[in-house]
TrEMBL record:
Residues 4-232 form the NAD-dependent epimerase/dehydratase domain. It comes from Aspergillus pseudoustus. It comes from the Eukaryota. Pfam families: Epimerase. This is NAD-dependent epimerase/dehydratase domain-containing protein.
Length: 320
């Protein structure tokens, strides 16, 4: 049974993935946690907690080697430490390779799965697949300001393939359960519900033409799970995958959320106001996940975001 270490294992995406791996019966799972409460949450879910500082390359290398980890998954939002995390993973891979070389032996590469994101495409002028290297002159979109650093990090991961088996997965905006990202657009509508306001204008910090790529958290976990199952050389020559189920305009989403919360107040789209996070949410996406389906054998099960939105809004409201 391979050992998988999920960095960010107590996070929104990381926990869903870790639970999926545990439930398969095919993996022993370790997860990083930064507080005793989150360690307890992991332990309760049959995930071995790691409380050490995983953003320190030396410490991460030791954790990987000591626990005989076969695959590391970075689902953290430790953006400023992304390079140190990659360094820790590659150091561990080299340490293992060099130790085997002394015995004149070889072994499988260490696996590394990185969670990137769809914002890396920016607003695409034409439809473009994940075969186009994001952030390069070949790409028709410019990465959102908030993730301007990410194309170089994706390239650094791909360049480490001499010692690592890698996969880069790019989730769309994730919904389901806590759905924290959506608070930016849905927060004002919930406030209107709570105050009983059905006349004052609700301001939504988005461009009216925004078209969001969306996906359920369980489908994201399934996409990562499929890549982990195939990390040992079965991902082809370009192991980079967009994961998206539907792209939906902000106005359709807003009206559906208003309906779910019973709010009839008018809405004004106030633009992105120079805020990099608002800007990223307001991109116009033309992405699809055809390669994830053909190469990973991935099929999303939670489709029809708008049709089922009352369920997701209720879960999000309960998590506030
Ligand atoms: N949510 C989305 O819609 C979405 C869409 C596309 C891409 N993504 C990407 O998915 C990844 C995970 O996002 P998420 O929504 O799951 O976020 P999240 O719930 O905030 O989880 C992030 C995880 O990273 C951990 N973390 C953050 N900084 C850290 C540090 N310095 N050292 C160690 N651990 C650290 C957090 O630990 P604590 O719990 O202790 O804070 C948490 O476990 C991110 O890379 C994000 O860019 C997310």
């Amino acid at each position: 049974m391979p050992n998988v270490l999920v960095l960010g294992g107590s996070g929104y995406l990381g926990l869903a993935l870790s639970k999926s791996l545990v439930a398969s019966g095919n993996y022993a799972v370790w997860g990083s946690a930064r507080t005793p409460e989150k360690s307890k949450l992991l332990a309760q879910n049959e995930i071995s907690p790691v409380e050490d500082d995983i953003t320190n390359a030396g410490i991460l290398e030791t954790i990987i080697v000591k626990n005989d980890i076969n695959i590391v998954v970075d689902t953290t939002s430790a953006y400023e430490q992304a390079a140190q995390i990659l360094q820790g993973v590659t150091q561990a891979a080299k340490t293992r390779r060099d130790a085997l070389a002394k015995e004149k032996a070889v072994g499988p590469k260490l696996g590394f799965v990185y969670c990137s994101g769809m914002w890396i495409h920016g607003s695409q002028s034409v439809r473009e697949s994940d075969l186009t290297p994001a952030g390069t002159s070949l790409s028709k979109g410019k990465p959102a300001t908030a993730v301007a650093w990410r194309p170089a990090h994706e390239q650094a991961i791909l360049a480490a393939r001499d010692v690592l088996d890698v996969a880069i997965l790019r989730p769309a905006t994730i919904y389901g359960r806590g759905s924290w990202v959506w608070s930016t657009w849905w927060g004002g509508i919930l406030k209107a519900k709570q105050s009983g306001n059905n006349t004052d204008v609700i301001q939504i910090p988005a461009d009216v033409q925004a078209r969001n790529p969306t996906i359920h958290v369980d489908d994201i976990a399934a996409g990562f799970h499929a890549a982990i199952d195939r990390i040992d050389g079965r991902l082809g020559a370009w192991p980079v995958f967009d994961l998206v189920t539907e792209t939906i305009g902000v106005q359709d989403i807003t009206e559906a959320v208003k309906g779910a919360l019973g709010v009839t107040a008018p809405v004004e789209y106030t633009g992105t106001q120079g805020n990099p996070f608002f800007e990223a949410l307001s991109l116009v996406s033309k992405a699809d996940a055809s390669r994830a389906r053909t190469v990973l054998g991935w099929e999303p099960r939670r489709t029809e975001f708008l049709l089922n939105i009352a369920i997701y809004v209720r879960a999000w409201e309960a998590a506030q």
